[in-house]
Amino acid sequence: MFVDASALVAIIVDEDDGTSLAERLDMAERRYTSPMALYETALALLRIRASPIDAITAMINNFIVKSRVETVPITPEIGRIAIDAFARFGRGRHPARLNMGDCFAYACARSLGVPLLAKGEDFPLTDVELA
Known about the structure:
This protein is mainly alpha-helical. It has one domain: 5'-nuclease (Rossmann fold, 3-Layer(aba) Sandwich). The strands form two sheets. Strands 1-4 form a two-stranded parallel ribbon. Strands 2-3 form a two-stranded parallel ribbon. Helix 5 packs across helix 6. It is globular, with a radius of gyration of 14 Å.
């Protein structure tokens, strides 16, 4: 499964749905994320917690290692799929209103052929398989 920043944040800060997302994460044989999702996670955690960036980065890295989440590179193919995702599901074009990070999470999941672990009302309006 590909783990979106929304799921990472929810699990790390134990949001209301964090436990159910963590359970779904635990059931996956392989877990992936991207540098872009990690960047989005860091920015969100910086807004939520009044901690230095080094502490936030360590928190994310510890979670990634403990949860055995692999970080995949953003390839040209993923970039092309993200552009297509924006054309089909992007803000101002579709009710899903995917932003840039969403388009790349969508593209990573599609490129890897795995379901997407995310929260929110946007991805269910697309054709990506959800975890």
